[in-house]
Amino acid sequence: MAFSFRHSALCGSLLLSAITACSPSNGDADFQRRKEHESTIHKRERLVHNARVLIKKTQLPMRNELLKLLGQTASVEVTHHQGKLFVKFLEQNLRGRMEHLLGVAFVTSEQMELLPLGHQSMAQYSPTLHTMIMREVTNVSEEWEAVSFTHELLHAERTLSKHAAVDHCEEEAAVREIEGQLLRALSSEEYPDLVEQMTSYAAPEDIAYPDFDRVFGRPFSEEERVLRDSMIHIQVLFAKERQRKTSKVPVSARLAKVYCDVEQAMIKESTRHRAK
Fold this sequence. Notes:
single chain; 6 strands; 51% helix
C-alpha cells in the first residue's frame, strides 16, 4: 500500500549512500555476496515481468508510461544502520545513472517496520530516492505481488508526470481508483457484478467473502487473502460513495475522505499490533 514518504516524518530517515557498486572481497564471502546480488536482480526481473503482463491486460490511459518505467528499473540493495535505511546499486554498469533509473529494493519485515505503516505495507514508493521498496514475502503469489508493485508504480508515474496530488488521501484515492482496473484484469468477468452486489450491504467489511475465491481463485495464504480482500473492500466503499447523488461535494474529495477513514482504521490496528 502507498503511504507516501511525502507526508511522513520518516522521509528523512531514508538516506542515499554513495552510488557505488559493491566492493569485491576474497573467498567464500565474496561468492555468497555475488549470489545474493544475483538473486535480488532475478527477483526484480521476475517482478517487473509479472507487472508488465498485468499492465498489458488493462486499458489504463497511462499504460505506455508505466511500461516505459518498467524498462528503466535497476536493483538496489538496502542496508540498515542506526535506525536508518541506505540504498546503493548492485549492478556496476549502472553506477552514476541513478537519476535515470527507478530503483527496486527488497527488504526484510524488520526493515519494513521502519517505514510508514510498515507492518501493514507490502510495498512502498519513495519519491525521495525514486525507489520501490518491496517487503520480502514467500506466502503471497506472484500475481498479487505484481498488483502491489504496480500500485506503487502508479505513484511513481504520477510523481514523475507531476499529476500526483499534494494531499496524501487524494493521491491514494486516485491510485486506488486505477487499482480497480488492475483487479478487474486479474479476475473473472464476474468481478464488476460482485462489487455492485456488495454495495447493497450496510457494512461490507463485516461480511465473509466466499465469492471472492470464485472470482479470483483461492488465495495462496491468509496474508494474501487479507491483501486481496482489503483491496476489494476499498473498491466496494468507493462504489457505494459514487452511488450517492445528493452530495454537492466533488466525487474525488468524497473518495479521498473514504480512503482517509480506512487508513485511520489501519493506523489504529498497526499501533495496536506494535504495542503487543
